[in-house]
Amino acid sequence: MERTLIIIKPDAVQRGLIGEIIARFERRGLRIVGMKLMQIDEALARRHYAVHEGKPFYEPLVAYITSGPVVVMALEGKDAIAIARRTMGATNPAEALPGTIRADFGIEIGRNLVHGSDGPETAAFELDLFFEESELLRYERAIDPWVSEG
Ligand code: DAT
Ligand code: MG
Known about the structure:
This protein is an alpha+beta fold. The chain has one domain: Alpha-Beta Plaits (2-Layer Sandwich), CATH 3.30.70.141. It contains 8 helices and 4 strands; from the N terminus they run βααβααβααβαα. The chain has helices at about 10-15, 20-30, 40-50, 60-65, 80-90, 100-105, 120-130, 145, and strands spanning about 1-10, 30-40, 70-75, 115. The radius of gyration is 15 Å and the shape is globular. The protein starts with a strand and ends with a helix. About 30% of the residues are buried. Bound molecules: 2'-deoxyadenosine-5'-diphosphate (DAT) and magnesium ion. 2'-deoxyadenosine-5'-diphosphate binds next to loops.
């Protein structure tokens, strides 16, 4: 069982796509174990994207992610990190496969709607940045055995 951090970015919130995006992860079978609406401040944005510091797109990226409210979610499931990334599609919506969130709702890299952790260490780091331990719930759904063999 893995956990991953998803951010529904400011463009998606402004465009009224919160429900659409949550529904895609939900229908995939991933379990929502944490969720909140918040506005990311500059310090948190810089920590979250620290790996990109110094790259030409870093400052615009910080400006974008802090530009309005976001929804952050912790998703859980077998291979949740990779499954969420494939549900999102390639970083650049122009190159993402149809059927993915980024392709179906976006056209360019600077407005790619959604963030998802890219590996186990990143997921642990990012979940810790955005959630208190007490905000991450442990529960079973009656449908879980119909999603995973266990
Ligand atoms: P991802 O969000 O798919 O994990 P990433 O971690 O490489 O991609 O980059 C973080 C964000 O930075 C990405 O969602 C959009 C932006 N970005 C990445 N590469 C970029 C580039 N070459 N030009 C402009 N923005 C870029
Ligand atoms: Mg990344």
